[in-house]
Amino acid sequence: MSPSHGALVAGAVLTAAAAATIAVVVWPEGSDSGLAGQSSNARTPAPSSAAPSPTRSYPLSTAPRTIPAVREHIAARGPGWRPGPDGGVVVAGASGTLADEGQLLAKELKIHYRGDVPARAGDVELALAPGKGAPESYTLDVHDGRVTITGPDQAGVFYGTRTLKQSVRADGGMPEGEVRDRPDRPQRGLNLDIARKHYTAAWIEDRLREMADLKLNQLGLHFSDDQAFRIQSDTHPEVVSPEHLTKAEVRSILGLAGRLHIEVVPEIDSPGHLGAVLRAHPDLQLRNVSGTPSPGSLDISNPGSAKLIDELLREYTELFGGAYWHLGADEYLALMARDPAASYPQLQRAAQQKYGAGAGIKDLATGWLNDRAAVVRPHGKRPKAWNDGFFRDGTVHADKDIEVEYWTGKEYGARQPEEYLREGRRVVNLNDEFLYYVLGQPNQFVYPTGRRIYEQWTPLVLRGTRPVPARYSGQILGGRFAVWGDLPRAQTPAQVAQGIRMPLRATAQKLWVPGKPALSWDRFRALAARIDGAG
Length: 535
Description:
Strand order of the largest sheet: 11-12-13-16-17-18-19-21
Number of strands: 21
Number of helices: 14
Radius of gyration: 28 Å
Oligomer: single chain
Structural class: alpha/beta
Largest sheet: 8 strands, parallel, barrel
Protein backbone atom coordinates (compact mmCIF):
# COMPACT_ATOMS: atom_id res chain seq x y z
CA MET A 1 0.00 0.00 0.00
CA SER A 2 1.06 3.60 -0.38
CA PRO A 3 0.82 6.72 1.82
CA SER A 4 -2.02 7.86 -0.37
CA HIS A 5 -4.06 5.06 1.21
CA GLY A 6 -3.40 6.46 4.64
CA ALA A 7 -1.04 3.68 5.68
CA LEU A 8 1.17 4.40 8.67
CA VAL A 9 4.44 2.60 7.97
CA ALA A 10 6.17 1.29 11.07
CA GLY A 11 9.89 1.69 11.57
CA ALA A 12 12.53 1.36 14.26
CA VAL A 13 15.86 2.98 14.94
CA LEU A 14 18.61 0.92 16.50
CA THR A 15 21.50 2.88 17.96
CA ALA A 16 24.80 1.01 18.25
CA ALA A 17 26.46 2.40 21.33
CA ALA A 18 30.00 1.17 20.65
CA ALA A 19 30.34 2.03 16.99
CA ALA A 20 28.55 5.40 16.72
CA THR A 21 26.66 4.10 13.68
CA ILE A 22 22.91 3.87 13.12
CA ALA A 23 21.15 0.79 11.82
CA VAL A 24 17.51 1.11 10.70
CA VAL A 25 15.19 -1.85 11.17
CA VAL A 26 11.87 -1.64 9.31
CA TRP A 27 8.83 -3.65 10.37
CA PRO A 28 7.00 -4.96 7.26
CA GLU A 29 3.65 -3.49 6.30
CA GLY A 30 0.53 -5.55 6.89
CA SER A 31 -1.40 -7.05 4.00
CA ASP A 32 -4.52 -4.93 4.61
CA SER A 33 -4.68 -1.20 5.26
CA GLY A 34 -2.04 -1.69 7.95
CA LEU A 35 -2.24 0.92 10.68
CA ALA A 36 1.24 1.28 12.13
CA GLY A 37 2.34 -1.21 14.72
CA GLN A 38 -0.41 -3.68 13.84
CA SER A 39 1.54 -6.05 11.60
CA SER A 40 1.79 -9.56 13.00
CA ASN A 41 4.80 -10.20 10.75
CA ALA A 42 7.09 -7.63 12.32
CA ARG A 43 10.68 -8.81 12.75
CA THR A 44 12.77 -7.95 15.78
CA PRO A 45 16.56 -7.68 15.49
CA ALA A 46 18.62 -10.27 17.33
CA PRO A 47 19.63 -9.21 20.85
CA SER A 48 23.03 -7.56 21.07
CA SER A 49 25.07 -6.57 24.05
CA ALA A 50 26.12 -3.50 22.10
CA ALA A 51 22.60 -2.13 21.55
CA PRO A 52 19.46 -1.58 23.58
CA SER A 53 16.11 -3.05 22.50
CA PRO A 54 14.73 -1.02 19.58
CA THR A 55 11.93 1.52 20.10
CA ARG A 56 9.32 2.27 17.48
CA SER A 57 8.91 5.59 15.78
CA TYR A 58 6.21 6.51 13.29
CA PRO A 59 6.07 8.68 10.22
CA LEU A 60 3.62 11.56 10.20
CA SER A 61 0.10 10.35 9.61
CA THR A 62 -1.99 11.27 6.58
CA ALA A 63 -5.62 12.42 6.55
CA PRO A 64 -8.36 9.79 6.78
CA ARG A 65 -9.97 8.84 3.49
CA THR A 66 -13.65 9.72 3.58
CA ILE A 67 -16.52 11.02 1.42
CA PRO A 68 -16.85 13.92 1.79
CA ALA A 69 -13.21 14.61 2.58
CA VAL A 70 -12.34 16.18 5.91
CA ARG A 71 -11.57 19.89 5.88
CA GLU A 72 -8.46 19.80 8.08
CA HIS A 73 -6.20 17.09 9.51
CA ILE A 74 -3.32 17.81 11.88
CA ALA A 75 -0.81 15.03 11.36
CA ALA A 76 0.90 13.28 14.25
CA ARG A 77 3.21 10.35 14.87
CA GLY A 78 1.60 7.29 16.36
CA PRO A 79 -0.11 3.97 15.67
CA GLY A 80 -3.57 5.39 15.11
CA TRP A 81 -6.68 3.49 16.17
CA ARG A 82 -8.55 0.49 14.94
CA PRO A 83 -11.55 -1.35 16.45
CA GLY A 84 -10.54 -4.21 18.68
CA PRO A 85 -12.26 -6.82 20.86
CA ASP A 86 -11.64 -4.86 24.05
CA GLY A 87 -12.62 -1.47 22.64
CA GLY A 88 -15.93 0.23 23.08
CA VAL A 89 -17.90 3.43 22.65
CA VAL A 90 -18.46 5.59 25.72
CA VAL A 91 -20.27 8.86 26.28
CA ALA A 92 -18.64 11.60 28.34
CA GLY A 93 -20.36 12.85 31.46
CA ALA A 94 -23.15 15.38 30.76
CA SER A 95 -23.32 14.12 27.16
CA GLY A 96 -25.97 11.48 27.69
CA THR A 97 -28.02 12.77 24.77
CA LEU A 98 -25.39 11.14 22.53
CA ALA A 99 -26.54 7.63 23.46
CA ASP A 100 -28.19 7.06 20.06
CA GLU A 101 -25.05 8.13 18.21
CA GLY A 102 -22.89 5.95 20.45
CA GLN A 103 -25.03 2.85 20.13
CA LEU A 104 -25.20 3.18 16.34
CA LEU A 105 -21.43 3.57 16.02
CA ALA A 106 -20.75 0.61 18.30
CA LYS A 107 -23.07 -1.56 16.21
CA GLU A 108 -21.43 -0.44 12.96
CA LEU A 109 -17.87 -1.01 14.23
CA LYS A 110 -18.82 -4.26 16.01
CA ILE A 111 -17.49 -3.09 19.37
CA HIS A 112 -19.15 -2.66 22.75
CA TYR A 113 -21.31 0.25 23.84
CA ARG A 114 -20.60 0.99 27.50
CA GLY A 115 -22.45 4.26 28.01
CA ASP A 116 -21.48 6.96 30.51
CA VAL A 117 -18.25 5.51 31.91
CA PRO A 118 -14.63 6.72 31.78
CA ALA A 119 -12.82 6.02 28.50
CA ARG A 120 -9.93 3.57 28.46
CA ALA A 121 -7.37 2.44 25.91
CA GLY A 122 -9.00 1.27 22.68
CA ASP A 123 -12.19 3.26 23.26
CA VAL A 124 -14.09 5.90 21.31
CA GLU A 125 -15.42 8.69 23.50
CA LEU A 126 -18.21 11.03 22.38
CA ALA A 127 -18.61 14.40 24.06
CA LEU A 128 -20.64 17.59 23.66
CA ALA A 129 -18.87 20.94 23.96
CA PRO A 130 -21.64 23.56 23.62
CA GLY A 131 -20.50 26.87 22.21
CA LYS A 132 -17.20 25.54 20.94
CA GLY A 133 -17.35 25.59 17.18
CA ALA A 134 -19.81 26.25 14.38
CA PRO A 135 -23.05 24.26 14.06
CA GLU A 136 -22.45 20.71 12.74
CA SER A 137 -18.69 20.98 13.27
CA TYR A 138 -16.62 18.47 15.20
CA THR A 139 -13.13 17.59 16.32
CA LEU A 140 -11.87 14.02 16.15
CA ASP A 141 -8.66 13.37 18.08
CA VAL A 142 -6.67 10.13 17.93
CA HIS A 143 -3.86 9.59 20.44
CA ASP A 144 -2.79 7.13 23.14
CA GLY A 145 -4.77 4.38 21.45
CA ARG A 146 -8.16 6.04 21.77
CA VAL A 147 -10.49 8.32 19.82
CA THR A 148 -12.28 11.39 21.17
CA ILE A 149 -15.04 13.04 19.14
CA THR A 150 -16.36 16.38 20.35
CA GLY A 151 -18.76 18.90 18.86
CA PRO A 152 -20.95 21.84 19.84
CA ASP A 153 -24.11 19.90 18.98
CA GLN A 154 -25.30 16.35 18.45
CA ALA A 155 -25.14 16.67 14.68
CA GLY A 156 -21.46 17.59 14.78
CA VAL A 157 -20.58 14.64 16.99
CA PHE A 158 -22.64 12.39 14.71
CA TYR A 159 -20.68 13.57 11.66
CA GLY A 160 -17.50 12.76 13.54
CA THR A 161 -18.74 9.19 13.94
CA ARG A 162 -19.38 9.06 10.17
CA THR A 163 -15.77 10.07 9.54
CA LEU A 164 -14.54 7.33 11.86
CA LYS A 165 -16.82 4.73 10.29
CA GLN A 166 -15.73 5.60 6.75
CA SER A 167 -12.03 5.63 7.64
CA VAL A 168 -12.38 2.16 9.15
CA ARG A 169 -14.15 0.96 6.02
CA ALA A 170 -11.53 2.50 3.73
CA ASP A 171 -8.36 1.58 5.60
CA GLY A 172 -9.13 -0.51 8.64
CA GLY A 173 -8.74 2.25 11.23
CA MET A 174 -8.23 5.91 11.96
CA PRO A 175 -4.83 7.61 11.58
CA GLU A 176 -3.12 9.36 14.46
CA GLY A 177 -3.73 13.09 14.76
CA GLU A 178 -6.63 15.49 14.88
CA VAL A 179 -9.45 16.19 12.42
CA ARG A 180 -11.15 19.58 12.54
CA ASP A 181 -14.13 19.50 10.27
CA ARG A 182 -17.23 21.49 9.39
CA PRO A 183 -19.63 21.87 6.44
CA ASP A 184 -19.25 24.58 3.85
CA ARG A 185 -23.06 24.90 3.42
CA PRO A 186 -25.82 24.44 6.00
CA GLN A 187 -28.33 22.76 3.64
CA ARG A 188 -27.13 19.59 1.91
CA GLY A 189 -29.40 16.92 0.61
CA LEU A 190 -31.56 14.86 -1.69
CA ASN A 191 -34.94 15.84 -3.15
CA LEU A 192 -37.27 12.94 -3.89
CA ASP A 193 -40.43 13.01 -6.01
CA ILE A 194 -42.66 10.37 -4.42
CA ALA A 195 -45.79 11.75 -6.12
CA ARG A 196 -45.08 10.62 -9.68
CA LYS A 197 -43.35 7.40 -8.57
CA HIS A 198 -44.20 5.49 -5.41
CA TYR A 199 -41.32 4.41 -3.18
CA THR A 200 -41.74 2.21 -0.14
CA ALA A 201 -40.91 3.45 3.34
CA ALA A 202 -38.07 0.90 3.47
CA TRP A 203 -36.53 2.27 0.27
CA ILE A 204 -36.71 5.83 1.59
CA GLU A 205 -35.15 4.77 4.89
CA ASP A 206 -32.28 3.14 2.99
CA ARG A 207 -31.66 6.49 1.29
CA LEU A 208 -31.66 8.22 4.68
CA ARG A 209 -28.91 5.90 5.94
CA GLU A 210 -26.91 6.49 2.77
CA MET A 211 -27.34 10.26 3.12
CA ALA A 212 -26.29 10.23 6.76
CA ASP A 213 -22.96 8.58 6.00
CA LEU A 214 -22.36 11.33 3.43
CA LYS A 215 -23.15 14.04 6.00
CA LEU A 216 -26.23 15.16 4.06
CA ASN A 217 -28.85 16.72 6.29
CA GLN A 218 -31.97 17.41 4.21
CA LEU A 219 -34.51 15.18 2.44
CA GLY A 220 -37.11 16.96 0.33
CA LEU A 221 -40.36 14.99 -0.13
CA HIS A 222 -42.51 16.13 -3.05
CA PHE A 223 -45.62 14.08 -2.29
CA SER A 224 -48.38 15.80 -4.27
CA ASP A 225 -48.55 16.37 -8.03
CA ASP A 226 -50.75 15.82 -11.06
CA GLN A 227 -50.16 12.07 -11.03
CA ALA A 228 -50.77 11.21 -7.38
CA PHE A 229 -51.07 12.31 -3.77
CA ARG A 230 -48.96 9.90 -1.72
CA ILE A 231 -49.50 10.40 2.02
CA GLN A 232 -52.55 9.36 4.03
CA SER A 233 -54.90 12.23 4.86
CA ASP A 234 -57.47 12.42 7.64
CA THR A 235 -58.98 15.75 6.56
CA HIS A 236 -59.27 14.89 2.85
CA PRO A 237 -58.95 11.13 2.30
CA GLU A 238 -60.60 11.54 -1.10
CA VAL A 239 -57.42 13.05 -2.59
CA VAL A 240 -55.10 10.19 -1.57
CA SER A 241 -53.88 7.78 -4.25
CA PRO A 242 -54.17 3.99 -3.79
CA GLU A 243 -50.39 3.57 -3.50
CA HIS A 244 -49.32 5.84 -0.67
CA LEU A 245 -47.44 6.06 2.60
CA THR A 246 -49.47 5.73 5.77
CA LYS A 247 -48.94 8.26 8.52
CA ALA A 248 -47.40 5.49 10.62
CA GLU A 249 -44.86 4.90 7.85
CA VAL A 250 -44.15 8.62 7.63
CA ARG A 251 -43.59 8.77 11.37
CA SER A 252 -41.13 5.89 11.07
CA ILE A 253 -39.29 7.76 8.32
CA LEU A 254 -39.25 10.93 10.40
CA GLY A 255 -38.03 9.08 13.46
CA LEU A 256 -35.09 7.59 11.58
CA ALA A 257 -34.35 10.92 9.92
CA GLY A 258 -34.25 12.61 13.31
CA ARG A 259 -31.82 10.05 14.71
CA LEU A 260 -29.62 10.58 11.65
CA HIS A 261 -29.83 14.39 11.92
CA ILE A 262 -31.68 14.77 8.62
CA GLU A 263 -34.39 17.39 8.20
CA VAL A 264 -37.37 16.27 6.09
CA VAL A 265 -38.77 19.11 3.96
CA PRO A 266 -42.32 18.25 2.77
CA GLU A 267 -43.89 19.84 -0.28
CA ILE A 268 -47.47 20.29 -1.40
CA ASP A 269 -47.07 22.21 -4.63
CA SER A 270 -49.70 24.85 -5.40
CA PRO A 271 -51.39 26.50 -7.22
CA GLY A 272 -50.13 24.26 -10.06
CA HIS A 273 -49.23 20.56 -10.06
CA LEU A 274 -52.47 19.66 -8.27
CA GLY A 275 -54.04 17.20 -10.70
CA ALA A 276 -54.48 14.46 -8.13
CA VAL A 277 -56.28 16.80 -5.72
CA LEU A 278 -58.42 18.29 -8.47
CA ARG A 279 -59.68 14.89 -9.63
CA ALA A 280 -61.55 14.79 -6.34
CA HIS A 281 -62.48 18.50 -6.49
CA PRO A 282 -63.15 19.34 -10.16
CA ASP A 283 -65.15 22.42 -9.17
CA LEU A 284 -61.89 24.07 -8.10
CA GLN A 285 -60.05 23.48 -11.39
CA LEU A 286 -58.95 26.53 -13.37
CA ARG A 287 -60.68 26.98 -16.73
CA ASN A 288 -59.92 29.47 -19.46
CA VAL A 289 -62.36 31.87 -21.10
CA SER A 290 -63.56 29.07 -23.39
CA GLY A 291 -64.20 26.70 -20.48
CA THR A 292 -61.20 24.48 -21.23
CA PRO A 293 -59.62 23.11 -18.03
CA SER A 294 -56.02 24.03 -17.26
CA PRO A 295 -54.27 20.75 -16.31
CA GLY A 296 -53.26 20.58 -12.66
CA SER A 297 -54.10 24.23 -12.02
CA LEU A 298 -56.19 25.51 -9.15
CA ASP A 299 -58.59 28.43 -9.68
CA ILE A 300 -57.13 30.78 -7.09
CA SER A 301 -59.96 33.25 -7.62
CA ASN A 302 -62.31 30.69 -6.00
CA PRO A 303 -62.34 31.01 -2.17
CA GLY A 304 -62.81 27.25 -1.90
CA SER A 305 -59.33 26.72 -3.31
CA ALA A 306 -57.57 28.41 -0.40
CA LYS A 307 -59.81 26.60 2.10
CA LEU A 308 -58.89 23.18 0.69
CA ILE A 309 -55.15 23.77 0.44
CA ASP A 310 -54.92 25.41 3.85
CA GLU A 311 -56.70 22.46 5.47
CA LEU A 312 -54.13 20.13 3.92
CA LEU A 313 -51.25 22.38 4.95
CA ARG A 314 -52.42 22.53 8.55
CA GLU A 315 -52.85 18.77 8.68
CA TYR A 316 -49.39 17.98 7.37
CA THR A 317 -47.52 20.68 9.25
CA GLU A 318 -48.63 18.79 12.36
CA LEU A 319 -47.31 15.51 10.95
CA PHE A 320 -43.96 16.91 9.83
CA GLY A 321 -42.27 18.50 12.79
CA GLY A 322 -39.25 20.03 11.09
CA ALA A 323 -38.25 23.63 10.44
CA TYR A 324 -39.11 23.97 6.71
CA TRP A 325 -42.11 23.73 4.43
CA HIS A 326 -41.95 23.82 0.64
CA LEU A 327 -44.89 25.64 -0.96
CA GLY A 328 -43.99 24.88 -4.60
CA ALA A 329 -45.48 27.82 -6.56
CA ASP A 330 -43.90 26.78 -9.88
CA GLU A 331 -45.34 26.37 -13.37
CA TYR A 332 -48.77 27.87 -12.83
CA LEU A 333 -50.14 27.43 -16.34
CA ALA A 334 -52.25 30.58 -16.30
CA LEU A 335 -49.04 32.60 -16.40
CA MET A 336 -47.71 30.62 -19.34
CA ALA A 337 -50.54 31.73 -21.64
CA ARG A 338 -49.72 34.22 -24.39
CA ASP A 339 -52.16 36.72 -22.84
CA PRO A 340 -52.96 35.58 -19.29
CA ALA A 341 -55.51 38.32 -18.60
CA ALA A 342 -57.49 37.58 -21.76
CA SER A 343 -57.30 33.80 -21.27
CA TYR A 344 -58.27 33.85 -17.59
CA PRO A 345 -60.40 36.96 -17.01
CA GLN A 346 -61.66 35.67 -13.65
CA LEU A 347 -58.09 35.70 -12.31
CA GLN A 348 -57.49 39.18 -13.66
CA ARG A 349 -60.65 40.47 -11.99
CA ALA A 350 -59.71 38.85 -8.68
CA ALA A 351 -56.24 40.41 -8.83
CA GLN A 352 -57.61 43.91 -9.40
CA GLN A 353 -60.26 43.53 -6.72
CA LYS A 354 -57.70 42.44 -4.15
CA TYR A 355 -54.63 44.49 -5.09
CA GLY A 356 -55.86 47.47 -7.17
CA ALA A 357 -56.40 48.45 -10.78
CA GLY A 358 -52.75 48.04 -11.72
CA ALA A 359 -52.47 44.44 -10.48
CA GLY A 360 -52.29 41.38 -12.68
CA ILE A 361 -52.42 37.61 -12.43
CA LYS A 362 -48.80 37.32 -11.30
CA ASP A 363 -49.74 39.54 -8.33
CA LEU A 364 -52.61 37.21 -7.50
CA ALA A 365 -50.21 34.25 -7.69
CA THR A 366 -47.68 36.05 -5.47
CA GLY A 367 -50.41 36.88 -2.98
CA TRP A 368 -51.38 33.19 -3.00
CA LEU A 369 -47.79 32.26 -2.15
CA ASN A 370 -47.61 34.81 0.68
CA ASP A 371 -50.95 33.67 2.09
CA ARG A 372 -49.81 30.02 2.16
CA ALA A 373 -46.56 31.07 3.85
CA ALA A 374 -48.68 32.76 6.50
CA VAL A 375 -50.45 29.44 7.11
CA VAL A 376 -47.29 27.42 7.77
CA ARG A 377 -45.31 29.99 9.80
CA PRO A 378 -47.41 29.65 12.99
CA HIS A 379 -46.49 25.94 12.91
CA GLY A 380 -42.81 26.85 13.16
CA LYS A 381 -42.06 26.43 9.46
CA ARG A 382 -39.73 28.49 7.32
CA PRO A 383 -41.27 28.66 3.83
CA LYS A 384 -39.55 27.73 0.57
CA ALA A 385 -40.70 28.05 -3.06
CA TRP A 386 -39.33 27.30 -6.52
CA ASN A 387 -37.69 30.20 -8.31
CA ASP A 388 -40.35 30.38 -11.02
CA GLY A 389 -42.87 31.32 -8.33
CA PHE A 390 -41.12 34.69 -7.88
CA PHE A 391 -41.87 37.51 -10.33
CA ARG A 392 -40.35 40.88 -11.14
CA ASP A 393 -42.02 44.28 -11.43
CA GLY A 394 -45.27 43.34 -9.75
CA THR A 395 -47.56 45.19 -7.39
CA VAL A 396 -47.18 42.36 -4.85
CA HIS A 397 -43.79 40.97 -3.85
CA ALA A 398 -42.98 37.59 -2.36
CA ASP A 399 -42.20 37.75 1.34
CA LYS A 400 -38.48 38.15 1.96
CA ASP A 401 -38.24 35.16 4.31
CA ILE A 402 -39.34 32.69 1.61
CA GLU A 403 -36.22 30.83 0.49
CA VAL A 404 -35.71 30.53 -3.26
CA GLU A 405 -35.14 26.97 -4.46
CA TYR A 406 -33.44 27.67 -7.78
CA TRP A 407 -33.87 24.97 -10.43
CA THR A 408 -34.45 26.50 -13.87
CA GLY A 409 -33.84 29.35 -16.24
CA LYS A 410 -36.77 28.42 -18.49
CA GLU A 411 -39.53 29.97 -16.41
CA TYR A 412 -42.19 32.53 -17.33
CA GLY A 413 -40.44 35.91 -17.32
CA ALA A 414 -37.11 34.13 -16.81
CA ARG A 415 -34.81 35.84 -14.34
CA GLN A 416 -31.09 35.38 -13.89
CA PRO A 417 -30.06 34.07 -10.45
CA GLU A 418 -28.36 37.40 -9.70
CA GLU A 419 -31.77 39.09 -9.64
CA TYR A 420 -32.89 37.05 -6.65
CA LEU A 421 -29.54 37.54 -4.94
CA ARG A 422 -29.52 41.30 -5.51
CA GLU A 423 -32.87 41.43 -3.73
CA GLY A 424 -31.13 39.91 -0.72
CA ARG A 425 -32.93 36.59 -1.04
CA ARG A 426 -31.45 33.37 0.27
CA VAL A 427 -31.14 30.63 -2.32
CA VAL A 428 -30.77 26.84 -2.37
CA ASN A 429 -29.17 25.30 -5.46
CA LEU A 430 -31.06 22.60 -7.41
CA ASN A 431 -29.61 23.52 -10.82
CA ASP A 432 -31.39 21.30 -13.36
CA GLU A 433 -28.30 21.31 -15.58
CA PHE A 434 -26.37 19.23 -13.01
CA LEU A 435 -28.65 18.10 -10.20
CA TYR A 436 -31.83 16.83 -11.89
CA TYR A 437 -32.25 13.07 -12.30
CA VAL A 438 -35.46 12.89 -14.36
CA LEU A 439 -36.71 9.37 -14.98
CA GLY A 440 -36.96 8.58 -18.67
CA GLN A 441 -34.95 11.69 -19.63
CA PRO A 442 -37.87 13.67 -21.15
CA ASN A 443 -37.69 17.26 -22.39
CA GLN A 444 -33.96 17.10 -23.18
CA PHE A 445 -33.01 16.05 -19.66
CA VAL A 446 -30.15 13.57 -19.42
CA TYR A 447 -29.15 11.58 -16.36
CA PRO A 448 -26.47 13.60 -14.55
CA THR A 449 -23.13 11.99 -13.84
CA GLY A 450 -21.19 12.16 -10.63
CA ARG A 451 -18.08 13.08 -12.58
CA ARG A 452 -19.67 16.18 -14.09
CA ILE A 453 -20.89 17.37 -10.69
CA TYR A 454 -17.51 16.60 -9.11
CA GLU A 455 -15.47 18.38 -11.76
CA GLN A 456 -17.70 21.26 -12.93
CA TRP A 457 -20.41 22.14 -10.41
CA THR A 458 -20.18 24.27 -7.27
CA PRO A 459 -22.91 25.82 -5.10
CA LEU A 460 -22.34 29.09 -7.00
CA VAL A 461 -23.34 27.46 -10.30
CA LEU A 462 -27.06 28.10 -9.96
CA ARG A 463 -28.09 28.20 -13.61
CA GLY A 464 -26.46 26.54 -16.59
CA THR A 465 -22.70 26.23 -16.12
CA ARG A 466 -21.77 29.79 -15.09
CA PRO A 467 -21.19 30.65 -11.43
CA VAL A 468 -22.66 33.75 -9.89
CA PRO A 469 -20.17 36.28 -8.44
CA ALA A 470 -18.46 35.07 -5.28
CA ARG A 471 -19.78 38.06 -3.33
CA TYR A 472 -23.16 36.29 -3.21
CA SER A 473 -21.76 33.10 -1.71
CA GLY A 474 -23.14 33.83 1.77
CA GLN A 475 -26.71 33.89 0.43
CA ILE A 476 -26.43 30.44 -1.17
CA LEU A 477 -27.44 28.11 1.63
CA GLY A 478 -26.53 24.86 -0.09
CA GLY A 479 -28.09 22.46 -2.53
CA ARG A 480 -29.97 19.21 -3.09
CA PHE A 481 -29.65 16.52 -5.74
CA ALA A 482 -33.16 15.91 -7.09
CA VAL A 483 -34.91 12.78 -8.39
CA TRP A 484 -38.05 13.38 -10.46
CA GLY A 485 -40.43 10.67 -11.67
CA ASP A 486 -41.74 12.13 -14.93
CA LEU A 487 -41.72 8.69 -16.61
CA PRO A 488 -41.98 6.54 -13.50
CA ARG A 489 -41.63 3.16 -15.17
CA ALA A 490 -38.36 4.09 -16.85
CA GLN A 491 -36.41 2.74 -13.86
CA THR A 492 -37.10 0.47 -10.92
CA PRO A 493 -36.41 1.80 -7.42
CA ALA A 494 -33.25 -0.33 -7.34
CA GLN A 495 -32.07 1.25 -10.61
CA VAL A 496 -32.78 4.71 -9.22
CA ALA A 497 -30.73 3.95 -6.13
CA GLN A 498 -27.81 2.76 -8.26
CA GLY A 499 -28.15 5.62 -10.74
CA ILE A 500 -27.94 8.34 -8.10
CA ARG A 501 -25.16 6.68 -6.07
CA MET A 502 -22.14 8.53 -7.46
CA PRO A 503 -23.97 11.81 -8.22
CA LEU A 504 -25.07 11.91 -4.59
CA ARG A 505 -21.51 11.34 -3.37
CA ALA A 506 -20.17 14.05 -5.66
CA THR A 507 -22.86 16.46 -4.45
CA ALA A 508 -21.99 15.71 -0.83
CA GLN A 509 -18.30 16.42 -1.49
CA LYS A 510 -18.98 19.76 -3.16
CA LEU A 511 -21.37 20.95 -0.42
CA TRP A 512 -19.06 20.01 2.45
CA VAL A 513 -15.63 21.06 1.16
CA PRO A 514 -15.19 24.26 -0.88
CA GLY A 515 -12.77 24.41 -3.79
CA LYS A 516 -11.40 21.83 -6.18
CA PRO A 517 -11.32 18.32 -4.68
CA ALA A 518 -7.89 16.91 -3.89
CA LEU A 519 -8.63 13.52 -5.43
CA SER A 520 -9.03 12.92 -9.14
CA TRP A 521 -12.41 11.58 -10.20
CA ASP A 522 -11.00 8.09 -10.72
CA ARG A 523 -9.49 8.03 -7.22
CA PHE A 524 -12.71 9.42 -5.74
CA ARG A 525 -14.75 6.71 -7.45
CA ALA A 526 -12.33 4.03 -6.28
CA LEU A 527 -12.57 5.31 -2.73
CA ALA A 528 -16.38 5.22 -2.92
CA ALA A 529 -16.23 1.61 -4.12
CA ARG A 530 -13.91 0.67 -1.26
CA ILE A 531 -16.05 2.35 1.41
CA ASP A 532 -19.31 0.99 0.03
CA GLY A 533 -17.86 -2.47 -0.55
CA ALA A 534 -16.65 -2.71 3.02
CA GLY A 535 -20.19 -2.17 4.29
